[in-house]
Amino acid sequence: MYEEITIDNSIFYIEQHHVDTFKQIASKLDNYSPLLKEGGISLLDGWIIAFNIWLLLLPDDEIIIKTDETSIYYTANLLIHDAIKDDTHFRHLKDRSNAPQELFYLASLLLATGLNEWILFVMKKYRLYDVMKRSQSRKYFNALNDTEKEIQIFLEDQALFVKAAVQELREESFSQMIKKYYDKAYFIYIDHYKQSLI
């Protein structure tokens, strides 16, 4: 599914070479693709999340978040972006400037899985069952291509989710999720990927 990622799927201002590099790494490590799982949103959207997390792991001077007209429709993206980049465990991973690109790629897959699970956890905990049902059946990152009525429902869903997510971010569940999946990525990299090179 990573083949379907385009420059338009980025929540950052990027260039085509970013997309191409991600796809090259994904192709090289294709046997690790099953690490990415569905959760609160679809698997294709999970790939887009993984791509954006991978971009976020790049040096800060390469990545600037989009603040165009469409970003106002995706308030959850801005909230989660800030929560991820400010997380201590994520900063620890990002600060490993000499880390191999394979580790960052594996981390992006696992953190996307963790985030997708966390989104599902928030929707269940705050009883957003209708939002959950719609989120799992729609293409989140293409929601603005829907009809005007569907876009309005999407915006209402975003507002409900953001309200719940803000409350949940006061708890430790988000940071614990980052740590869990960062650790998992590191051990998969050491125990499986590096061992496969020997």
Question: Helices, strands, pairings?
Answer:
Layout: E1 12-13, H1 16-28, H2 43-57, E2 64-65, H3 75-86, H4 88-94, H5 101-125, H6 129-137, H7 148-169, H8 173-196
Antiparallel strand pairs: 1-2
Tell me what you see in this structure.
The chain crosses the membrane at residues 103-123. Keywords: Membrane, Transmembrane, Transmembrane helix. There is one protein chain. The protein has 198 residues and is mostly helical. It has one domain. Helix content is 64%, strand content 2%. The chain is built from eight helices and two strands; from the N terminus they run E-H-H-E-H-H-H-H-H-H. It has helices at 16-28, 43-57, 75-86, 88-94, 101-125, 129-137, 148-169, 173-196; strands at residues 12-13, 64-65. The protein has a two-stranded antiparallel ribbon with strand order 1-2. Helix 2 packs across helix 5 (101-125), helix 3 runs parallel beside helix 7 and helix 5 (101-125) runs antiparallel to helix 8 (173-196). The two termini are 29 Å apart. 32% of the residues are buried. The model has no long low-confidence stretch (mean pLDDT 90).
Based on the model shown, name its key terms.
mainly alpha; two-stranded antiparallel sheet; 2 strands; about 0% strand
Number of helix segments? 8
Based on CA atoms alone, the radius of gyration comes out at 16 Å
Number of DSSP E strands: 2
Helix coverage percent:
55-70%
Derived from helix and strand composition plus strand pairing, the structural class reads: mainly alpha
Give the uncertain stretches in residue-range form.
none
> What's the end-to-end separation, in Å?
29 Å
> Which term fits the overall shape?
globular
Output the strand order for the largest sheet.
Answer: 1-2
Largest β-sheet summary: 2 strands, antiparallel
Q: Which series of helices and strands comes N to C?
A: EHHEHHHHHH
The proportion of strand residues reads under 5%
Please give the domain count: 1
Average pLDDT taken over every residue: 90
